[in-house]
Amino acid sequence: MPKKTKVVVLFASLAILAFMALGELGVRASSNEGAYRQLQVYSEVLSRVRSEYVEEPNIPKVTDGALHGLLESLDANSSFLTPPQYKVYKARNTETKADIGAGVSKRFGYATVISVIPGGPAEKAGVEGGDIFEAIEGQSTRDMSLAEIRSMLSGQPGSNVTVSVVRARRAEPQKLVITRDVVTIPPVSDKIVDEGIGDIKVDALPKGKSQEIANKIKALQKQGAKKLILDLRNVSEGEESEGVATANLFLNHGTITYLQGQKYPREAFNADPAKAITTLPLAVLVNKGTAGAAEVVAAAILENARGDLIGDKTFGEGSVQKTIDLPDGGALILSVAKYYSPSGKAIQDNAITPNVVVADVDDAAGDGANPDDEDGATPSNDQDAKPKNTVDDQLNKAVEVLKSRIS
Question: How much is the pTM?
């Protein structure tokens, strides 16, 4: 087929793809006109690249890159998968039962670890919350969609995956080998941290975890707890529905969250009085590793004035995706709805800011480094470990705040 014909076919395919995407999103006519103009611009750019670039470009690769950038510009969870990538993605989703035990999203264009599950494969390999995976199996994560990243991190139990980790306190990326495994979520723990103050520590919110939390609340009350701390720091894994159920344990009225999108009718989740089990004064601990379902809990408690939110600003994660098969065997993964706080703020866009801000212990060492920023990684004499601080300022502040509250 002549090159000119190939380009025409490519343009026609792109037009069909664009119209399909617009149809799925339900864009209005005025927006369609703008989309048509942008498609013309894209065609002109592609034509110029083909005719005037320094060498003959790999047009399929250029097109895949453009579509990848288009989807990622929407949000971290929207992805474009080529036919080979989609085939692997579907196979791993149906066949694999093991992963690395870490919540992973994208920041600075690269895969970023939100938090790790205690005792999981990632933690055992030395991965920490805030780490950036610059590469997975030698492939830059900047060029991967989040769906592809998560797919590559999953696999058969006992299999290995090699990641290149960038950390703010380390001058050079470090290669770590993680052995995938079936991850077991630690049970919810409870203890009395001060006279009359009970502490409940959660590591993730998978299905059924709210009942476990409810049992701990009852146990602490039997031990004489008059005030409660719910520790949701570094909780990034779980289901939003479980976040709703957890918030309802403390709320006997009000909106917990709602879900809404352009073609997704508003779905509100309101507190059921029959499911609330305690009215004790409450403080909720959050940090940068708090995401998703845990953010639903945090926002509901704060905005319903049910308790104090103490710690650092959360990560910002909370949306629903739809997979759209494409004619060529590839796929679009589009975010079609977002979770909102009771006051109407999109959790994914705004995250949750505590009413009592206490910085994370490791803030003095800097935030996660940007792999593209030469100043992002700061050399240190001690490059392998975070500064050790046995004083939990956030927990101590929660105790202080609760002591000032009347039971």
Answer: 0.84
Q: How far apart (Å, rounded) are the C-alpha atoms in residues 279 and 121?
A: 38
What distance in Å separates the CA atoms of residue 175 and residue 322, rounded to the nearest whole number? 34
DSSP 142: G
Alpha carbons 244 and 113: distance in angstroms, whole number: 24
3-state secondary structure of 18: helix
Q: What are phi and psi of 286, to 5 degrees?
A: -135, 165
In tens, the pLDDT along 23-51 reads 444 444 455 677 777 778 878 888 888 88
Please determine, for residue 22, whether its predicted confidence score (pLDDT) is greater than 60.
Answer: no
**Spatial distance between the Cα atoms of 294 and 65, rounded to a whole number of angstroms:** 34
First vs last C-alpha separation in the chain: 79
Token pair 């593209």: residue: 372
**How far is 219 from 187, CA to CA, in rounded Å?**
14
Identity of the amino acid at 280? L
Q: How far apart are CA 13 and CA 61, in angstroms?
A: 15
60, two tokens: 């399929």
Q: Give tens-digit pLDDT for 323-371.
A: 999 999 999 999 999 999 999 999 999 999 999 999 987 654 444 455 5
- 87 Cβ contact partners less than 8 Å away, ≥ 6 residues apart: 329
Domains contained in the chain, CATH given: 3-57 (no CATH), 83-179 (2.30.42.10), 189-353 (3.90.226.10)
Q: Rounded CA gap, 270 and 242, in Å?
A: 13
> Lowest-confidence range among 32-41, 58-67, 194-203, 279-288?
32-41
Cα-based distances in Å from 59 to 45, 47, 64, 66, 72: 12, 10, 9, 10, 20
Please name every residue paired with 269 in a beta bridge, in sequence order, or none if there are none: 257
Helix (H) or strand (E) holding 20: helix 3-25
DSSP alpha helix (H) spans, 26-162 = 29-52, 59-72, 83-95, 121-125, 146-153
Question: Residues 147, 105: contact at Cβ < 8 Å?
Answer: no
DSSP letter at 274?
A: G
Q: Which two tokens stand for residue 82?
A: 């080529």
